[in-house]
Design goal:
Number of domains: 3
CATH superfamily of the largest domain: Metal-dependent hydrolases
Helix content: 25-40%
Radius of gyration: 24 Å
Length: 605
């Protein structure tokens, strides 16, 4: 009796290990007909996957998995396309990504049309013309994504150049980094910014030769104007942001999205949208710890409710490396603009604030994601984490470094020793690699921006991200940049920092799942995990690495349900990412609320 029971148990375990469930549970869907990259520990490929009730019940050969087929089972033919685990967003801003989806596209090629200030003006004017009825009604113009590093003039636009588009309507355009913005004269007037206005700590109001604001606002000067506008948008507009952003993330194969810096109001909006309408992907949110510490401690959870949860704290130490606002440990190489000799950038917060925020998270067992770009900012972070661990111990909160553009190799060693998870930004090598080589850090140090090679050599897990809306949440561009490190000009920036395709895929799937404490449910195709999948036009491990950016997301599947499907013929070329207006109702809500918010907060700088 004992021997028979033991044998049956052993046989059941063997069948489960080979992908066949002992009870032959009937699947809702079986996926087969193309390469399936499981991204499991062994890095194996398989032939078929069976799913029931949103979870994986079998993985293995087609013949074994087909044993789970019943009369009601749908067989999903991959048609030779590749299936992978759904991508997990290591760092992005999915709700604020709705701003990108619902405003004028001011990005440079290949993502947009802007190459100089005249084309920027033209893009704004064309957006106004295309949306004339809405603009006439709500009286505001918004643009996102300009980059002075990609403009022929190599400078920011001025308020006068935006006045040339419209002197009557307020205009606000947001730099691609999200750390700088430009307002026209009307917007400055509504924002109460004058020659007498003092910049807040951690921010800069740029001025002309006469001391008048020239329209360019850096860091906390920009946030102090723009954040109240976002907070004052109203529920309908923020809900439109959440829907548009989640749809955008799904279209690039992300099944878990992150809102990497939020307010409590944004969290509540996401919860409400998810409860009422549902979101196509999971959303994990990290409110700003300097603004909402008590809210974070009361709301953080590892469990999703309707696909939304608060994951912990966000801290921002410095700014944008390409915008020369990140804090370095040495002068910028050749900064473009009016900078004093020996200019290092600056921190957005003090060392005391940094230590207090990290101590709070360690004392309360909360995860903390820290934005640190320059070497000086990373020195602050490493010192604060080391002090907290020495005094408070390790609460198992998996602290995360966000960006780390200019990390030194000794700082990578320190992060490894402290158990910090690096979420790196190798897309910088494509978008701003030439700019970093020529202007921010110079040709020697530019070889080591986004140092995925150093991290991988030390056996560290890491994530790679897009930081959208800084760039589109283009998963294939993330993959290509991590593997090739090819810049816009065609240069290869730091070949020793490249990693292989499978490592790069792990940094988009199972490792960021671990980052979010979700490795038991997400990040690989294994029995028991959620049926979160992405189907690509081809197998990324089998194509020329130089063509990775051309791969297409064909289908995104969340817990067994299709949440995105490319239009027929999409494989013939890149998707059109000119999103506005995807939904005129969303656009109307956003613009109307923006105008009301600008009026309401006209003197709150």
């Amino acid at each position: 009796m004992f021997k028979s029971t033991f044998s049956a148990t052993l046989l059941a375990g063997t069948l489960l290990a080979t992908g066949t469930a002992w009870t032959q549970e009937i699947a809702d869907t079986i996926y087969t007909g193309g390469p399936i990259l499981t991204i499991d520990d062994a890095g194996t490929n398989t032939e078929a996957v069976a799913v029931r009730d949103g979870r994986i019940i079998a993985v293995g050969t087609a013949s074994d998995v087909m044993a789970h087929r019943g009369d009601e089972t749908e067989v999903f033919d991959l048609g030779g396309r590749a299936m992978l685990p759904g991508f997990v967003d290591s760092h992005g801003h999915v709700i604020m990504g709705g701003l990108q989806a619902l405003s004028a596209n001011l990005l440079a090629p290949p993502d947009g049309p802007v190459t100089d200030i005249p084309s920027l003006q033209s893009a704004l004017s064309q957006w106004v013309e295309d949306n004339r009825g809405i603009v006439d009604q709500v009286q505001v113009i918004v643009g996102f994504g300009y980059d002075n590093a990609q403009l022929a003039e190599l400078r920011h636009p001025t308020r006068e150049e935006l006045d040339a588009v419209s002197a009557e309507l307020p205009i606000m355009i947001v730099h691609q980094s999200g750390h700088i913005g430009v307002a026209n004269s009307k917007a400055l007037e509504i924002g109460g910014v004058t020659a007498q206005t003092e910049a807040p700590p951690g921010g800069v109001i740029r001025r002309d030769a006469n001391g008048e604001p020239n329209g360019v606002l850096e860091e906390y000067a920009f946030f102090t104007v723009f954040a109240p506008l976002m907070a004052g948008l109203g529920d309908e507009a923020l809900e439109a942001f959440a829907r548009a952003g989640a749809d955008l993330w799904a279209s690039f194969g992300y099944t878990t999205a992150q809102e990497g810096r939020a307010t409590p109001e944004v969290v509540e909006v996401a919860r409400r949208v998810a409860a009422e309408d549902g979101l196509p992907v999971d959303v994990v949110i990290f409110p700003d710890v300097l603004e909402a510490a008590d809210y974070i401690s009361e709301n953080t959870s590892r469990d999703y409710v309707d696909g939304v949860r608060v994951g912990g704290c966000k801290l921002t130490i410095d700014g944008s490396p390409q915008g020369f606002t990140a804090l370095r440990d040495r002068p910028y190489y050749d900064p473009v603009g009016d900078y004093p000799p020996g200019y290092l950038g600056y921190s957005a917060i003090t060392m005391e604030q940094t230590q207090q925020a990290i101590d709070f998270c360690f004392e309360n067992g909360l995860q903390i994601l820290t934005h640190s770009n320059g070497e000086g900012a990373s020195d602050m972070l490493i010192a604060a984490l080391g002090s907290a661990q020495e005094r408070l111990g390790d609460p198992g909160n998996r602290p995360v470094l966000i960006h780390g553009q200019f990390l030194r190799e000794d700082q990578v060693d320190a992060l490894n020793q402290l158990g910090v998870f690096p979420s790196l930004f190798p897309m910088h090598t494509f978008y701003w690699g030439d700019w970093h080589r020529d202007h921010t850090v110079g040709p020697v140090n530019a070889e080591n921006i986004s140092p995925t090679g150093w991290v991988h050599q030390r056996g560290m897990m890491f994530g790679t991200h897009h930081d959208a809306p800084v760039a589109f949440p283009d998963s294939m561009r993330v993959l290509a940049a991590t593997v090739t490190r090819r810049t816009r000009s065609g240069d290869i920036l730091g070949p020793h920092q490249r990693v292989d395709v499978m490592t790069a895929l792990r940094a988009m799937t199972i490792w960021p799942a671990w980052q979010h404490f979700e490795e038991d449910d997400k990040g690989s195709i294994e029995i028991g995990k959620l049926a979160d999948f992405v189907i690509l036009s081809d197998d990324p491990t089998a194509v020329d690495p130089e063509t990775l950016a051309d791969l297409q997301v064909m289908v995104t599947i969340k817990e067994g349900d299709i949440v995105y499907q490319a239009e027929p013929g999409v494989r013939e070329g890149r998707l059109d990412r000119s999103f506005f207006p995807r939904d005129p109702g969303m656009a109307h809500e956003f613009l109307h609320a923006m105008y009301e918010a600008m009026s309401e907060h006209s003197h709150e700088f």
